[in-house]
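Hi support team,

I submitted a single chain yesterday and got back a structure, but I'm not sure I'm reading the token output correctly. Could someone confirm the output below corresponds to the sequence I sent? I've pasted both exactly as they appear in my results page.

Thanks,
R.
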Amino acid sequence: MSTSVPLRLVLASQSPARRKLLQAAGIEPDVLVSGVDESQVVCERAEDLCLELARLKAQAVLGRLRPAVDERTLVLGCDSVLAFDGEILGKPADAVDATRRWRRMRGRSGVLHTGHCLIDVTHEARAEAVASTTVHFADISDEEIAAYVATGEPLAVAGAFTIDGLGGAFLTGIEGDPGTVVGLSLPLLRRLLADLELRLVDLWSKVAPGGQEIEHLG
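Hi R., thanks for writing in. Yes, this is the structure output for that exact sequence:
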């Protein structure tokens, strides 16, 4: 499953959280923003919507790439939505919408779905799947909601909350991979790479985040 050809991972996302998650795992991606208009895509199921958006993001970036002949290029598209109370929730429209959502979500639970589409440009192959994690929200006060919304953080993320930022204090627990809530599941990425006969360790940079050298496994 290993490869002797250098691997290049292109992340089709403007999310700094996804990039930071990959970097912390020893992977330094190139970033190309897809520019996909998410509002134009409609699906009845949250799982279908996030996966379709992930596909569209990956495909949009794919058309702008000029892969080098001496490397194997991969494109990863991801998208997240929250399934809550029978609704599919992406990013809130504005502060009023974010406030309204939090007043409904507090003390309750929802399921955060993140679609992943991994395209092997060099071999014209694809692997895709959805990771799902149940999120339990704290029963926070109106004052806490107002303070959180005022930071602007919930306006930029699916479901109007984060786990790796200010919003993490307002969650009481999760059931599943925390990376799914951030927007990218590393265990799922590992499985998708295996479907393409690749290993996640082959994407590791030469130097890990802590500065130590990484010895590749072969």
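A quick pointer for reading it: Strands lie at 7-11, 30-31, 72-84, 87-89, 109-120, 125-137, 171-175. Let us know if anything else looks off.

Best,
Support desk
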